[in-house]
């Protein structure tokens, strides 16, 4: 049924979309515009809604705050480690899973479990794994003669601890997407390559990666955006603190702190906007890369 | 070109929506920590007993709280008892999660004008809510709708802790003090006395280190703020004066106990809970000789210690520097919201009056491990009987005599954050105590000046 593009048809389509648009409008679009406005209010009182007009002062405060610089640095470190490592590991696991038929659903569920478990529960488990005296991780390191590491109480190790946990947690979702992507690659390519004598690595390099590139692109965009917003993992892993000596404060943690502890609503909103701009730039850059390197069949 | 522009717009929309869809992350645990409560039993679901059968039972009073587990059962019981005791009001109690989530709910409802009639508030909430006119001063309501006999009977320190800018902003309700937890097995093994001063603890600790004992003589919670302030004030420091005019955190009397803690940690006989979250864990595993924690933690220590076959008791806090005994109050109070109608506010007062009647405040204390907030509550027959059967609760009851509150001020959340950071700097990074405390004092003065 192909309708002509008339105003009437467009209007009808709009009617169908209306319920969803209202929901998105109220819960997504309006808050976004409101928080943009909040970032520019002068002396904003959230409860009365009063403000003294618009100003750029909030950004000034933000950029001169050393803690915000720390938060930015930490967030970048976190994103730049978690995203690529998680993608590489999950791609590897997905390919392995794709090659076995036996027990595949079982493994798939195991890897997917962390994704559907609450971050708080996961963090409690990891707090035990990381424990300097009783932790399993230090126990295994001890087997190799490595001295026990104060994962959670040393400012130097807190960030690695958060990164390791997050990589583990994000695997399941990425694996699932990769498996879907791998499923769409026809076996004929591999068979042809095998006849031509291509090695496993050559098949991976010249068939899997190019044909999977749309999925890799999708996964990386989603991961980048999600990882920039890191908060739960830090909050729960360090018991409601931004790590020892503030060592794992991230941009969203900073926002949370400004909003709920210090009641600097406008500065909090401003930090949200900065994060938004960063994410936008990264996404645009990825889009540009997408054009150059991603092969759509 | 047009298509390009369109896809660019689409991209922006998608980024915005994805970036905004931040999964709800407020579900925290260990949030009550700042107030000295062991927040181990964390956020229960926001169930609430909202089955509105209120219509024919008079005015409905909504009550938001952050009590979970056995504490929630106790509060439900008291609420039901109040509802049955009279016909004018029906209190509907609703659990909002932990303290942190409760505060978030209050802030959100403050904006959308959807506040409850009354709610639990921690000491850092009170000035914040009061300065935004979310809650009403209770002075007038108290004189008109509250039994003066009960009011006069409330421990002075408790009421001071609910007073902000010379007005009573809240009614003391769940108050806890700090007590010394003692591992009786180790005490017996080492043949030491339960200490009354920090000097004695230091002696025991040094001896244990010397003997190569790997257990710790002294344990503190993850954040040492309350112990530090207690020790400093015992030592004669003013810390933060009631009228907020003096901040004495960098002075000698305050720096001394901090240096004492840092040295003890350095020497290896003192430790903070750190990665264990709460000291009740290591203590109930028999690794700690003494530890200072909230009296509300009794209920958490008991089952764990029993499991590990550790026999323990409690004692009043040790004193630092030969000063007078002192302990700081923590816990939460009840606040009444300005958006409530006169009738609802009167109902809230009636409910509070009910909660503070000797048998009820005693019952609340017995069920939860908090202390009764009135003299009559402590002296009530039930509570005295309870103390006889539960000698571990006695130390807290004795301390009510000299329990005092820290002054309330706007910005205290920020001040607590700074304290935590300073503590990490001193105890983990080994920064100079004198300098760090001096900086902390300057920052605290600035916070107080900017916000009050």
UniProtKB/TrEMBL annotation, chain A:
CDD domains the UniProt entry points to: TM_PBP2
Keyword annotations: Cell membrane, Membrane, Transmembrane, Transmembrane helix, Transport
Subcellular location: Cell membrane
InterPro entries reported in the protein's UniProt record: ABC_transporter_permease, MetI-like, MetI-like_sf
Alphabetical list of PROSITE patterns matching this protein: ABC_TM1 (PS50928)
GO biological process: transmembrane transport
ABC transmembrane type-1 domain location: 72-286
Gene Ontology cellular component annotations, sorted alphabetically: plasma membrane
Sequence intervals crossing the membrane: 12-33, 76-97, 109-129, 157-185, 206-225, 265-289
Pfam families: BPD_transp_1
Membrane topology: Multi-pass membrane protein
Keyword field contains ATP-binding: no
Family: Belongs to the binding-protein-dependent transport system permease family.
Protein name: Carbohydrate ABC transporter membrane protein 1, CUT1 family
TrEMBL record, chain B:
Location of region: Disordered: 26-57
GO annotation, cellular component aspect: cell envelope
Database matches in PROSITE patterns: PROKAR_LIPOPROTEIN
Bias (Acidic residues): 47-57
Domain of life from the UniProt record: Bacteria
Major localization listed first in the record, in broad terms: other
Subcellular location(s) of the protein: Cell envelope
Keywords: Signal, Transport
Signal peptide bounds: 1-19
Pfam families (UniProt xref): SBP_bac_8 (PF13416)
Family classification: Belongs to the bacterial solute-binding protein 1 family.
Protein name: Carbohydrate ABC transporter substrate-binding protein, CUT1 family
UniProt source species: Lacicoccus qingdaonensis
